[in-house]
Amino acid sequence: MDFLRPETLAEALEIKAERPDAVPIAGGTDVMVELNYDHRRPAALLDLTRIPELQQWEDGLRVGAGVPYVRIIDELGAQLPGLAMASRTVGSPQIRNRGTVGGNLGAASPAGDTHPVLLASDAVIEVASVRGTRMIPAAEFYLGVKRNALEPDELIVAVHLTPAKGPQQFSKVGTRNAMVIAVCSFAISLFPQENRVGAAVGSAAPTPRRAPEAEEFLASALDFKNPKPLLDSVKREFGELVSRAASPIDDVRGSAAYRKHALAVMARRTLGWAWQELLAKKNGSEERPCA
Amino acid sequence: MIGRPVDRVDGRIKVTGAAPYAADTKIPGVTCGYLVTSTIGRGRLTGMDTAAALASPGVLAVYTPFNPLKLFAYVQEQNDERFPPLQDTEIRFFGQAIGFVVAETWEQARDAAGLVTATYDQQPPVTEFPGRTLQAFEEVEEVVGTQTVGDITFTASYTTPFQHHCAMEPHATVATWNGDHLTVYTVSQGALLVQRRLSETLGVDAAKIHVLSPHVGGGFGGKWGNWAQVPLACAASRALGRPVKAVLTREQVFAMAGHRPRTKQTLAMTCTEDGKLTSIVNDGVTSRGLGGNWSESVANWTLTTYASPNLRVTKTVVPLNLGAATVMRAPGEANGSFALESAMDELAAQLGVDPVELRLRNYATLVPNTGKPWSGKHLDECYRLGAEEFGWSKRPKQVRATADGDWLVGTGMATATYGASRGQASIKVRLHPDGTASVSGTAADLGTGQYTVFAILAADELGIPVTRVRPDLGDSTSPAAANAGGSNSTCTNGPAVQVAAKAVQTELITLATTNPRSPFYGKEVSYRDGSVSSGGLTMSFGTLLTTCDVGGVEAVGTSPRLVDPEHGFRSFGAHFCEVRVHRLTGEPRVTRWLSVCDAGTIVNAKAARSQIQGAVVMGIGQALLEATEVDVSARFTNANLASYLVPVHADIPRIDVRFLDHSDPVISGLGAKGIGELGIVGVAGAIANAVHHATGVRVRDLPITLDKLL
Prior knowledge:
Radius of gyration of chain A: 19 Å
Largest sheet of chain A: 5 strands, antiparallel
CATH class of the largest domain in chain B: Alpha Beta
Largest sheet of chain B: 7 strands, mixed
Oligomer: heterodimer
Largest interface: A-B, 22 and 25 residues
Mean pLDDT of chain A: 94
Shape of chain A: globular
Number of strands of chain B: 27
Number of strands of chain A: 14
CATH superfamily of the domain at 168-282 in chain A: CO dehydrogenase flavoprotein, C-terminal domain
Distance between the termini of chain B: 52 Å
Strand content of chain A: 15-25%
Number of domains of chain B: 3
Strand content of chain B: 25-35%
Low-confidence stretches of chain A: none
CATH superfamily of the largest domain in chain B: Aldehyde oxidase/xanthine dehydrogenase, molybdopterin binding domain
CATH class of the domain at 168-282 in chain A: Alpha Beta
Number of helices of chain B: 14
Helix content of chain A: 25-40%
Mean pLDDT of chain B: 96
Order of helices and strands of chain A: EHEHEEEHHHHHEEEEEEEEEHHH
Structural class of chain A: alpha+beta
Shape of chain B: globular
CATH topology of the largest domain in chain B: Aldehyde Oxidoreductase, domain 4
CATH topology of the domain at 168-282 in chain A: Enolase-like, domain 1
């Protein structure tokens, strides 16, 4: 197995063009597990950890694919609260020191913790090859179980996200309190200026996916200009529509029926938190509920 | 000194990485062995192709059933495998050792192992439980009384899944020969267990086998047996004339190094209207992995827990195509107590009686199945103190009566008991000229605190600080002491340490009065607090040895096996817990815990508390998380620590542990009974009862996962 260590992005892209079978590795929190279990034996590993461009984030926001979760939590928590919340639920401190959003996207597991947030927040994935750069909206990025929209010669370079324009929330159900793969997860982003809502589910379908009917319903049911306390009927309908957007399976972590049920609960719960935050802000209070 | 909180004497070397574990052993020229394992669950090997592996870089040998290392049949019945590895072509379970590749490096051995191919004559493996079986059920019964009639009847079935020990340290063995002498560095709950097994299967005099197992990274029963890597490393080392190291992967540990069997218990109880039990029948079913012989007597805990004039338990064994089932912390009692403690809670609800009160009404003042008196039993005090400290009287009678936001809050309790006994043990105490004392025996410290127990008891008897005592464990050349299993270490080894520390004082006095260089030569002397005195002269033993130019005095003390047909011996305890279950998602979380234990003399309050806390943590795993799944090919599918969930820190509340101060003078002068397993007994029952109190949902099928609570 060749271990390839490019120093620049340009060099990495050239290698990837020549060796499309090279598996990119950054934090190694997924790839090393697969290697250790001999689930795959790639001909080459492409180490991305020496490339400075991937380790940076810029205002705007463009977050390098190699920025570890711990930095998203520490440095971007205020601008990207939803992504920071999801990052906090990833693995253990050691995993969060190593693991990256780029890696989450590369693995494209339906249970990846950051996917629902990226979907609900209109993230755009910047991918590159020697042929040039492509910008892929998150909603078009996930193609199937552990399959994404990358071409064999492409690398994930960055994730583009706008700093939160309104409240964001993330929720995850697991069988234990930490270091656990989600039974199912859910993210919501409110865009008050645009009268718009983003909502997405994780670990409840072959891919992470948005819940468009739930988003549309909520956008029409909520009055962002003059926010009033939420009606229970709105929360219920929203939860129901989110649940309907999922097509989960039974597995050792939970049954399909449980996942449908829990998604509705999480949708109602996170909507309640997000709306409470919006109301508090309108009333001049800076207090924010936490997840 | 006995009973005070003492820091572990081996704590510093463990947290700094200085403690040598088996796999850390560095021997020049060591080679690495890697196991090839079966990829079917049942059948016969018809052929293996090892050519590619043999041609692979660094490979020294590839052993298979077609090119085996000679190993003699196992003689002694044990909790591990029935047959030594590679001696026959029958496949009994998925993941069975079918090959052993030895190479210069671990990576080379692993890589070559991946190149070995096998062909099989395959048969469908048997994995259904209970279900069709390969052979007739075996039934074992114990019956006391014959009546099963009462006013009130309660019947229910309880099931538990396969579970694994998940010790942090995987099974590792390093073997090296010097002529016909074998030295083995290995994981073990007792160096003599390894020596005996290797003597059998290698055909070598036990006196020529030196086993070293000074530190063990957790055992929980999984390191009582000797699994395939032990004889293979030793036999390959002999054949190759090179040291061989073999370490199981985590997946191999799951497949071949033992598991807690699946069980089902069907309890039928009758009682009078005022809640006095008139009969208990428990029909237990246990799986047995065909890799081994062992199975759980899961119903037997029912025989000794509550007073009832009629008791009947049965045991039905279901053999499955799996690796050996083996002992795992409180084997039988952990699962057995889940059923009976759940049933007692259900019966209490049916009668409208408080669960603590029901247990007191059926308090067994004599051993229920033998009628003998207990050596000592203060379980009623555990219940009363626990209830008082926990605030049990404030508990609402109704289920689903307390909510805190979206969390439903409930409390539950259960009884813990575990058998106690005292075996024979010999211990050597040696006094050194530098003023230190060493204490040695073949005992093992798996993280249990046995090192510190030796240090405390020797220091106490010799009257010197704990820091001047150096315990040496896990060496087969030491006097034969108790293996670490069955909660037997401290109650068996402890008295022997005391005997030996006393005996060495006599040796020291003999030296003092008979050695011409001694200032006490020919005088009448006494020993006290590390010094010998006569008249106005007092001299520490270190100075005395130095003065006499003697390298040390030592004595071996033996504490005999206790044979007492008159009494029943057990440790006792009561658990009280609070559980919160989310009203909408069903997530169960343990939020408060109190354990009160009556286990005789506690030698080290700090380590004892840790041991009970650790057992409660393990019990929380048993109750809420742990289950190994088996697929149609008879493979354990979640054979890793990412998919087999054990509790994490965030799942564990503060665990309050209290010990009653009642020595048990019948078991020994020290008065200590065991606590290694006691702490897990009843934990799953207490949690199931609290979950029921919180939600009104009774789960009789472990683990209690969130989807069962909606």
